[in-house]
Write a structure and sequence with these properties.
The structure holds two protein chains of two kinds.
Chain A: E1 2-3, E2 14-28, H1 31-43, H2 48-71, E3 76-88, E4 91-103
Chain B: H1 6-15, H2 21-31, H3 35-52, H4 59-69, H5 71-100, H6 106-133
Helix pairs in contact in B: 1-3
The chains are: A alpha+beta, B mainly alpha.
Chain lengths: 104, 144
């Protein structure tokens, strides 16, 4: 599965547009990690607990988007984008979306 | 080295998206009934994710690793969490005991006990669900 943020796949031609595909997830860290993160907020620097939280969410959202694209018979997802938001304190929502296409 | 079984080969093809629609549907119905195969697929997804998230280590990563191994850092962290956990549990128990032995009427006491028992039960059920599904969650080892 080719994923790209551009509207076309360089060197390949789009034969058919399937439509919007997306994957989302909301994840959190456990209380212990939240406690560590809250202390790191006091002293500054990177909060790896939340870097990891967003990375986990990003990969799961991508995988869900790919699964949908595969189920619909796509070869690639073009114009891929990410959005993120906070659902509740310490929980991150990540959405990956794009246009599923068939290539020649 | 052991040769992969037919099911393992199918699982690899499934994870890589190489199965056609009919084969994928057949494999997915088999997957739904086989926890051992589900674990296999999770492990393969984990490997794929590690390869996808490959990042060059930064100097700060080495320092964090050193700190993780530092006995003082580890002991202080464990001690801190233990003190926090036991202190909170003890405080909750003490507040509960004080309320129970207070002049408060029996009904509010029972209702308060019900609220605490309900919250504890819900927490335990959620924890059980997380522990049961944790082996099937391939996203826990992604660092950044």
């Amino acid at each position: 599965m080719i994923l790209c943020t551009t509207d076309a796949v360089p060197g390949r031609e789009i034969r058919e547009t399937i439509g919007l595909v997306r994957g989302n997830t909301v994840r959190s860290r456990h209380l212990g990690r939240d406690i560590s993160a809250s202390f790191k907020r006091l002293v500054g620097g990177e909060i790896e607990e939340y870097t990891k939280l967003l990375a986990e969410s990003r990969e799961q959202a991508i995988d869900r988007m790919i699964a949908e694209a595969r189920a619909r018979g796509a070869d690639a997802v073009v114009g891929m984008r990410f959005t993120t938001s906070e659902i509740s304190a310490g929980a991150a929502e990540f959405v990956a979306y794009g246009t599923a296409v068939k290539l020649t | 080295m052991q040769e992969p079984t037919r099911e393992q080969l199918q699982a690899m093809a499934y994870v890589d998206g190489e199965l056609g629609p009919a084969d994928r549907a057949t494999f997915e119905s088999l997957l739904a009934t086989r926890p051992d195969l589900q674990l296999e697929v999770t492990q393969m997804r984990k490997l794929g994710l590690l390869a996808r998230a490959m990042a060059a280590p930064e100097p700060i990563d080495h320092e964090w690793k050193r700190l993780e191994l530092d006995p003082l850092q580890r002991a202080s962290t464990s001690l801190g969490f233990a003190a926090l956990g036991f202190g909170t549990a003890g405080l909750a128990g003490w507040v509960g005991f004080e309320l129970w032995t207070s002049e408060m009427q029996l009904l509010p006491k029972l209702l308060l006990g019900l609220v605490c028992a309900g919250a504890l039960l819900l927490f335990l059920v959620t924890l059980r669900g997380r522990l049961r599904t944790l082996p099937y969650d391939p996203y826990t080892e992604i660092e950044r």
